Amino acid sequence: MPREAEEGSSVELRCEWRLFGGAGLYSVKWYKDEHEFFRYLPDSDPKILTFTQPGVNLDKRSNSEKSIRLVNVRLATSGQYKCEVSTEGPSFASFQQIANLTVIALPERGPEITGLSSHYAVGENVTANCTAWPSVPKANLRWTINGEAVPTENTVQHPPLAPVSTKGIPNSLGLRLEAEPRHFEGGGGLVRIKCIAEVGSRAFEAEKKVLMAYVNNQRLSAGDLRSNRGCRLDDRFLYGPLILSIILIVVAT
User: Which of 4, 124, 147, 198 is 20 to 30 Å from 106 by CA-CA measure?
Assistant: First the structure.
């Protein structure tokens, strides 16, 4: 999975390399989508040269032969990054490694659940809607009831929503199922209906807690206790294989 960074954060790109057999270093170059934007030449003056590329904003105080730092990353910073190390003669060897960076724009808040009725009886239809705020990429939505995933056949995928200016793309997913006794079992009849919105490796949640009570052993009444919106961030970090490796370190600012 591509490495991620939040819009506006800083990212350190490290290029770890070792030379063998007495070979000398000739150059270290960095490319974004095959366009060079950084060059290190140990025997030149100046040693470091930079080239303007869209989406690449270098912290010129934090660059060296083995690491560079991107600051205030934007959506345009997303792309394929390549580090290329070349040696001097007599071998004139060149080695390279590639890594992807994806910049994500998180939603301003968690998803919202709407449309739940206050009373349900076994056999009645339970309908609701979950709306995710704009993000990049568009949030992937899913439902759970009492911690169990709702099957796809009980969800309704609405037509794509239009982007909201530059803030990203919203998304919406419906819930359609028939109330069954198993939904009300355990936990004192407390039914937890949850919508999870995933943006990249981050996950945001909205939950409705509904208390079910039997009336004449037939009908159930539901009181919507509260709606809790939370955020769970799942940070993932992958390391590439080494002989020559590029390590992307996301540094929040």
Answer: 147
- Residue with more model confidence, 17 or 149: 149
| pTM reported for the whole predicted model | 0.74
Tokens 């869209």 belong to: 54
pLDDT above 70 for 239: no
Tokens read off for 175: 């819930």
DSSP class per residue in 73-90: --GGG-EEEEEEEEE-TT
The DSSP 8-state label assigned to residue 183 in this structure reads G
Indicate the SS3 state at residue 153: helix
User: 60 vs 133, which has greater pLDDT?
Assistant: 133
For residue 202, the Cα-to-chain-centroid distance in whole angstroms is 5
**Three-class SS of residue 152?**
helix
Q: Left if phi > 0, otherwise alpha if psi is -120 to 50, otherwise beta: which for 217?
A: left
Residue with tokens 């992958």: 238
- Exposed, middle or buried by CB within 10 Å (0-12, 13-18, 19+), for 123? exposed
- In this structure, the dihedral spanned by the alpha carbons of residues 57, 17, 200 and 133, taken in order and rounded to 10 degrees, is -20
* Secondary structure (DSSP) of 109-137: S--EEE---SEEETTSEEEEEEEEEEEBS
Question: Which two tokens mark 125?
Answer: 């239809």
List the one residue out of 165, 139, 6 whose CA is nearest residue 78.
6
pLDDT higher at 95 or 226: 95
Enumerate residues 6+ apart whose C-beta is below 8 A from 221: 118, 119, 212, 213, 215
B/e letters for 42-64, b = 16+ CB within 10 Å, e = fewer, are eeeeeebebeebebbbbeeeebe
